[in-house]
Amino acid sequence: MSYLSYLTPTATSPWHTYLSQVDRVLPYLGSLAHWSETLKRPKRALIVDVPIEMDDGSVAHFEGFRVQHNLSRGPGKGGVRYHPDVTLEEVMALSAWMTVKCAAVNLPYGGAKGGIRCDPKALSLKELERMTRRYTSEIGIIIGPQRDIPAPDVNTNGQIMAWMMDTYSMNTGTTATGVVTGKPIHLGGSLGRVKATGRGVFVTGREAARRIGLNLDGARVAVQGMGNVGSAAAELFVQAGAKIVAMQDHTGTLVLPSGFDMLKTMEVLKRDGGIGNIEGAGRIDGEAFWDVDCDILIPAALEGQITPERANRIKAKLVLEGANGPTLPEADDVLGERGVLVVPDVICNAGGVTVSYFEWVQDFSSFFWSEDEINVRLDKIMVDALKKIWETADRHKISLRTATFAVACERILIAREERGLYP
Ligand code: NAD
Questions:
Q1: Atom 5, ligand 1: which residue's CA is nearest?
Q2: Residue positions annotated with a catalytic role
Q3: Distance between CA 99 and CA 117 in Å, rounded?
Q4: How many Cα atoms occupy the beta-carbon half-sphere of 414 within 13 Å?
Q5: Residues 149 and 268 placed together within one structural domain of the fold
Q6: Do 149 and 216 fall within a single domain?
Q7: Ligand 1 site, CB within 6 A
C-alpha cells in the first residue's frame, strides 16, 4: 500500500482502513480499476488556522480542516466534527467514506468532511460560536451550496449549522440556506433530519435481520454511543419490540438484561448529555461492553472500535455500523469467519446524508415536505440500495462492505471516466 507523502498512517488509522477497503474492491471493478488512484487520494485538502478570542481575553488557536475527497458525481457533502483527536488523516478517511456512501445510495454528491481539533465541552457557548464562525469564514473559499455542503457530525448540531449558514450568508451577501444541512427547521432545515441517520441504521438493520431470520421482537441490542445516531436507532429498535440491553458512552457502560426504558433514557440524555446517571442498571467496565450477550451490536461512537481481539469476543449475530469506520479490516475478517453479519457504515449510516439531500432539494425549491413523506422516501432509498448491494454480495460471494464499495465505486469511476481528464 503506498501512502501520500504528507501522511504517516499506522495500521489502525482510518485512512489505512479506507485504503484496505479500496484494495479489496479492485478485483470487482473490471476495466474501471485503472482509475483506482482517483479513489486513493483526496482531490483537495484545506488546513486552516482558527484563532479566536476566549472569554478571559486570551487568544486560542485551533486547527481546522476541510477535505473534498472526490467531486466527480456532484458537490462535496459531509459533516463537520469537533473533537480533540481530529487529524487531517481522519478527516481524509471520513471524506472518502462520504464519497462511497453518497454513491452507494445514488445521491448526486461527491464526498467531503471537515473538523476542528478541539474539546468543545471545554468551550463556552460564545467561544464555540466564535470558533464556528471563524472556521466557516476560513473554509468559505471552498464551500457553497453548489460546491461543498457541510452537515453535523460528532459534537456538532443544528445550532452550529445555523451559525455556519449565517456566517457564509453574511460573507456572501445572500441568504444561503443550501450551504449546510442539518439546520434548525425554521432556517430551512428538514423535518426528520435529526433522527435520519439512526432511522437509516434501523431500516438497514430491519432488512438485514429479516434476511438472516432474526426476529426483532425480543431481540437484544447493545449500543455504543448514545448521541444523535445511537439514541435515535435505539428508540426505533425498541418501538419494533427489541430491547436495549447495554449502552456505552463517554460517561459509562450500563447493562440491563430486561431492557432500558428509552423515554427515561432520552430524558437523562437531554438533561446530562450522557448516560452516566441512569439509575437501576448494572455498571460494568468499558472493555466488558464487547462481551455483552446480545443479538445486535450497534457501534455508533467513533472509528477503530472493533479490533480483531474484540471481534473474537462479540456475541451478536448482526453488527450495524452507525459510526463511520468502527471496524478495522482484520476485525472484519474475524467477524466474517465467525459468521457475524456486518452492515457496513457506507450503507448503514447513509440515512443522514439522504435526508440532508432532501433538505438541500427543499431549500432550492423553497417547498417543504411532511415528516411522513421524508420517512417514506428515506425508507425506500435505503431498502432499494441495500437490495442492490445484497445482490452484488451474493453474485460475487463477497462481504456487504466490499459489495457496497463495488456498487459505489463503479458509479464514481464511470462518472470519472465520462467526465475525462481536465485539461
Ligand atoms: P454525537 O456527538 O451526537 O454522539 C457521539 C456519541 O459517542 C456520544 O454518545 C458520546 O458519548 C459517545 N462517545 C464518544 N467517545 C466515546 C468513547 N470513547 N466510548 C464510547 N462512547 C463514546 O455524534 P453522532 O452524530 O451520533 O455520530 C456518531 C457516529 O456516527 C460518528 O462516527 C459519526 O461520524 C457517525 N455518523 C453521524 C451522522 C450524523 O448524521 N450525525 C451521519 C453518519 C454517520
A1: 227
A2: 113
A3: 22
A4: 10
A5: no
A6: no
A7: 152-155, 197, 224-230, 248-250, 274, 300-302, 322-324, 349, 352
